[in-house]
Design a protein that fits this description.
Shape of chain A: globular
Strand content of chain C: 15-25%
Structural class of chain A: mainly alpha
Shape of chain C: globular
Largest sheet of chain C: 10 strands, mixed
Helix content of chain A: over 70%
Chains: A mainly alpha (about 230), B alpha/beta (about 240), C alpha/beta (about 325)
Oligomer: heterotrimer
Strand content of chain A: under 5%
CATH superfamily of the largest domain in chain C: Periplasmic binding protein-like II
Largest interface: A-C, 22 and 23 residues
CATH topology of the largest domain in chain C: D-Maltodextrin-Binding Protein, domain 2
Distance between the termini of chain C: 88 Å
CATH topology of chain A: MetI-like fold
Chain lengths: ~230, ~240, ~325
């Protein structure tokens, strides 16, 4: 039985279950944010630089996806991975990969849209300067991303925070299985439904501290850029 | 003769004159640029003169968009070049396209040459976005001069330079032009610079070319009245020269 | 030139505001009409129970029914704290409709795991409980939080599993041997893992079977009965469940009952009014109204009937007030 005091005592002593939950949370968050950034940075950079028919529409679609309700994404992935669904044979439902997939669907549009906005402001000036120099495409995109790295770090943080706080979709496709798919947010839900409000609050505080620490570290890097 | 009509053309033979037609731009009911035809001869050095708002930058931008070539043979320096948050050497190296297949040593040598010519050697490790206006402008110029190019389009490349830096820049440019015999279009409002570097002049006023010909035409008493007005104003500003 | 653009912007903003305003107005009028229906609708008395079930949601009532109007009680909100299993079975909404139309109360159903359901009673966030965890209920009343524990209906847990029945549970005669068989074959078993009534019953069975369940095959999901059944369906696993929720989700999970009603699987539901001595703000009258209703013939009829049409058998067995 977890209580308020026991949560912090457990962290101090290295209790298995709580560390396991925290570890799984961090793992899931890193993976989903990582994939979203890996796909979202180039996507945003390309969208910022190219113009093609239907660009405006594509932009609107991505921006709409930013506001996709998490339970909708969760439902979609659930149906996809369910035993009777098209990808049922992979048996990915109620597993870490399923949670990462659902989170990716939620975070990728956010990262892409914010990257697009961050890069757009500078892309004209940069492109004008290097337009005739004969640089290969990928180098141009790398330059764009590098020059906007301050804003992009904020984008990564946004994605990270979003992933850390996600509960609905993660609950649906992960199943909150002890030792397998229980993360901080779903653990808080469980403790609350059990009536263990003290434990839930403690877990919540740990989550906040984690988010705070990440922000502090990131700010350190951002400050280094700005002087 | 290479004809370029309202779309981008890919230049390969730089021995031929280039004619561009239909250089026009209208913005919110105002005619920014209206040049029906412009012919540029290889190896010549054109000074694009005009007051602020006459359409010089628009014309330069259009020239850079209408003409393309591989391996950076056309170099364009915009009026406000972007300074990358990389060190100065790296910034300059961006001007070296991969297609030239230079070895690392050759690349470094070219970069070093530009650093020396423009007195940037001490700053070679500094971040490009931390330089002063003049230093950044020299760096942008170095980026263009680091490899031989057939066409140079420079939009106000010396506007932030003090006399010392200006002398260095002019020397570097003169050197470059004599070595490579490039076609130069230099937009500037600094008449002295124009007179020293160029042999042809194009006078732009309210988007239209009012005078075109050898640079000596600036002194000609029968020159265009608007040109006289422009010179008087500029001469008044630069009376020290 | 700039003036034109300004006017276009102003027009666009104006149009947007008009649209938003219209949406807001229509939403407000909808809520207003709902509440006026509640307060102004004349309601039939208990004697016209049969008609009332059908007419519960109608706003227009026949003259015969409007003759006996019930005044709206002073504190119309009754908060019922119950468990997810009860809620998932679908019984409560049916009872709620009848209760609300015959008494004028507004029943708010809050479903949680048993632990939280009881906690809400302790903190006074609920007026009356409907749970099924005898030990926890008795502790609740003994501590003075509840007025009285009234067990009034029961059903049975069942052990559901995949049609394949890997552990041959269907050959077992009672739950304890079934659990032993599952542990022996290490067949996947889904546990509620949330301290709920069902969970407590399950853990008690493991204890009786002398097994400490652990390992990859024992999946402790922290979820409600319905979602756990879904998971069991997905993973083709065994699960202890109440029959009602099982039947309600059978079509989707495709599980079968491997062990049905056996004595060690009896599950009793109780009503407990929250004690106003510990929490003065609770709606004691409303709680009592709900309890009275649940002990009435009307409720008895609904409960004994529930499920027969859809599943061919009743989901709950009505016992009534203990003597």
């Amino acid at each position: 039985m977890i209580t308020f005091q026991s949560v912090f005592a457990a962290f101090a002593s290295g209790d298995g279950e709580l560390y396991q939950i925290l570890g799984l949370t961090v793992c899931m968050t890193l993976l989903s944010t990582g994939f979203s950034v890996l796909a979202g940075f180039p996507a945003g950079a390309v969208l910022a630089s190219l113009s093609f028919p239907g660009k405006k529409l594509l932009r609107r679609i991505i921006q709409t996806c930013m506001g996709l309700p998490p339970v909708v994404a969760g439902l979609f992935v659930f149906l996809l991975l369910s035993r009777r669904g098209p990808m049922g044979r992979l048996q990915l439902l109620f597993s870490l990969p399923a949670m990462v997939i659902a989170q990716f669907i939620l975070i990728f549009p956010i990262v892409t849209s914010l990257t697009l906005a961050a890069i757009e402001s500078r892309q004209k000036a940069i492109n004008q300067t290097i337009s005739t120099l004969g640089l290969p495409r990928y180098k141009k995109y790398l330059l764009l991303l590098w020059e906007c790295r301050g804003s992009l770090l904020t984008v990564v943080l946004t994605g990270f925070g979003r992933s850390l706080s996600e509960v609905g979709a993660v609950m649906m496709v992960g199943g909150n299985i002890q030792g397998r798919t229980r993360v901080m947010t779903t653990a808080i839900m469980l403790e609350t439904s059990k009536g263990n409000f003290g434990a839930a609050i403690a877990l919540g505080l740990v989550l906040l501290i984690l988010a705070f620490l990440v922000n502090v570290i990131a700010n350190h890097f951002q400050e280094a850029e700005h002087d | 003769m290479t004809d370029i009509q309202s779309q981008t053309a890919y230049l390969q033979d730089f021995e031929k004159p280039v004619t561009l037609t239909g250089l026009k731009q209208i913005w919110r009911d105002r005619i920014v640029l209206d040049v029906p035809k412009l012919t540029l001869l290889p190896g010549r050095r054109y000074a694009l003169l005009g007051a602020n708002g006459s359409g010089k930058s628009t014309l330069m931008k259009m020239l850079s968009e209408r003409m393309t070539a591989e391996n950076g043979q056309i170099g364009y320096l915009p009026q406000k070049p972007y300074n990358f948050a990389l060190n100065v050497s790296h910034n300059i190296s961006l001007g070296i396209p991969r297609g030239l297949a230079l070895s690392a040593d050759e690349k470094n040598a070219s970069i070093q040459k530009q650093l020396d010519a423009l007195n940037l050697t001490e700053l070679s490790a500094c971040r490009g976005n931390r330089l002063s206006g003049g230093e950044a402008q020299k760096m942008a110029l170095a980026r263009l001069l680091v490899i031989p190019r057939k066409i140079l389009l420079l939009d106000e490349p010396t506007s932030s330079l003090d006399l010392n830096s200006l002398a260095q820049a002019e020397a570097a440019l003169t050197d470059y032009l004599s070595q490579n015999n490039s076609l130069l279009v230099l937009a500037t409002h600094q008449l002295s610079v124009a007179r020293r570097l160029c042999d042809e002049m194009i006078f732009l006023d309210q988007g239209q070319i009012l005078a075109l010909g050898p640079i000596s035409g600036l002194m000609d008493p029968s020159r265009n009245s608007r040109l006289s007005l422009f010179l008087r104003y500029e001469h008044g500003m630069n009376s020290i020269e | 030139m700039t003036k034109k653009i300004f006017i276009t912007h102003a027009r666009k903003t104006g149009a947007l505001m008009v649209v938003l305003l219209l949406a807001l107005l229509s939403a407000c009028s909808q809520t207003a009409s709902v509440s006026t229906t509640d307060t102004s609708a004349a309601v039939p008395t208990q004697s016209t129970a049969a008609a009332s079930t059908a007419a519960a949601t109608d706003t227009a009532l026949t003259p015969a029914e409007t003759s006996a109007a019930v005044t709206k009680p002073a504190n119309p909100v009754v908060r019922l704290s119950t468990t997810t299993s009860v809620n998932d079975s679908g019984l409560l909404p049916v009872l709620e409709k009848v209760f609300e139309s015959s008494t004028g109360y507004d029943l708010q159903i809050i479903a949680n795991g048993t632990g939280a359901a009881i906690k809400l009673g302790e903190s006074g966030d609920a007026d009356v409980l409907l749970v099924h965890a005898k030990a926890a209920e008795e502790a609740f009343v003994d501590a003075g939080y509840g007025v009285e524990r009234i067990p009034f209906m029961h059903n049975y847990f069942v052990i559901a599993g995949a049609a394949g029945d890997k552990a041959k549970v269907s050959d077992c005669t009672d739950a304890i041997s079934a659990f032993k068989a599952i542990a022996a074959s290490q067949a996947t078993f889904i546990s509620r893992g949330d301290d709920s009534g069902t969970n407590k019953a399950e853990l008690a069975l493991w204890k009786s079977a002398g097994v400490t369940p652990s390992g990859d095959w024992y999946v402790s999901a922290g979820k409600g009965m319905g979602p756990c059944l879904t998971m069991a369906g997905e993973m083709q696993a065994y699960i202890l469940t109440d029959k009602a929720t099982y039947l309600a989700t059978k079509a989707q999970t495709e599980l079968v009952i491997c062990l049905g009603e056996s004595d060690d699987l009896k599950n009793t539901y109780s009503l407990i009014a929250v004690n106003p001595d510990k929490n003065p703000g609770v709606n004691t009258q409303g709680a009592q109204a709900w309890i009275d209703f649940m002990l009435s013939d009307q409720a008895k009829a609904i409960i004994t009937d529930f499920g027969i049409k859809e599943y061919g058998e009743p989901l709950f067995f009505y016992d009534g007030a203990p003597s």
